[in-house]
Amino acid sequence: MRRPSAAAGSALFFAVAPGTVAGLIPWALTGWEAQAEWWPPLRVLGALLVVAGAAVLVHAFARFVIEGLGTPAPLAPTEHLVVGGLYRYVRNVMYIAVTSAIVGQALLLGSRSLLVYGAVAWAGMAAFVKLYEEPTLADRYGAQYEEYRRAVPAWWPRFSAGRSPSSSPSRRGPSRRHR
Q: Structure pTM?
């Protein structure tokens, strides 16, 4: 896939998937109005989580376009396994960013319902990773993905980047990547 197509497809998927999960649904649950006046430092932490989650999500989508030459959407996957940038520290960058944005909104707005929704959304994403993404990536990338999976944790970032599998063309398998 060419970069302009990858960028357009990624922008569309960004609006549809994380835009719905981390934007539309939280808005539907809260109207983005404060539900309770929680302790101000918690609200500041919430704002920081929203900003950090959004920044990390944009970074991750850019990695899929630039490094992977594709999109995070299963219907238009990348040509290369994305293992650079924040993916050197943790495999599920996008899911962590989306969950952070939801939890951040919950803290900012004082919304227990958003905290519950954040836990449910994370559980759904974790199940999707375990039941669909990991087996698909193992099938498509074989040893390269297995090496990456052994070297990089799924949910809790490691503190040093270390060495991840190469995404060079000679070691690349069929189109697919990890979100």
A: 0.87
